[in-house]
Amino acid sequence: HRILGRRAAVKVLHAHLADQGEMLQRFVREARIVNQIRHPHVVDIYDFGMMPDGSPYYVMELLEGRTLSQLIHERGRMSAERALAYLEPVCQALEATHRAGIVHRDLKASNVMVVEDGERPRVKLLDFGIAKILQPQTGTTGQQGQEGLTLAGQRLGTAFAMAPEQLRD
Q: What burial class does residue 108 get, using C-beta atoms within 10 Å of its C-beta: 0-12 exposed, 13-18 middle, 19+ buried?
């Protein structure tokens, strides 16, 4: 990133998807949602803009490492203590996400980046593309703070990683 002076990653919505209103809305919402959370265990987005062809992009922190899914695939079953070391920071990220009035809706090991491994791993929660924006916590949940992009009965996410209540609507 020229202004911030650090390496960054750029996510670009393909031009053919930018023509689809819902995909464009989801892409823009993802960048806005992540910036509402601001937590050390959630990927950070630095900038947003449009390519010369009209495709939107955002610039985010460059994360080096492997996804939790890749780690599990490489190492196999892990002890409860080791699993907890990865899950505690994910839970902290989710707590901050929920405090911001946002539900991730696609929590799975491939959306968790292990940036530093070790006794106390550093992880980042990724991919808020299908997140749902709720009203900030006022004692009631389920009310949307902004117009949603999901139709009633439409399921978004990864079926094997969904909570039962999400599968039941």
A: middle
Query: CA 32, 60, 24, 99 torsion: positive or negative?
Result: negative
Q: Give per-residue pLDDT as tens, 3-49.
A: 888 899 999 998 778 777 788 888 888 898 998 999 999 999 999 99
Residue 47 a catalytic site member: no
Q: 19, 47, 53, 106: which is the annotated catalytic residue?
A: 106
What is the residue whose two structure tokens read 């946002």? 102
Residue that the structure tokens 């919505």 belong to: 13
- pTM value is 0.78
Q: Sign of the C-alpha dihedral, residues 56, 59, 65, 69?
A: negative
8 Å CB contact between 94 and 107:
yes
The pLDDT tens digits of the residues spanning 85-128 come to 999 999 999 999 999 999 999 999 999 999 999 999 999 999 99
Determine the Cα–Cα distance for residues 108 and 114; give it in Å rounded to an integer: 13
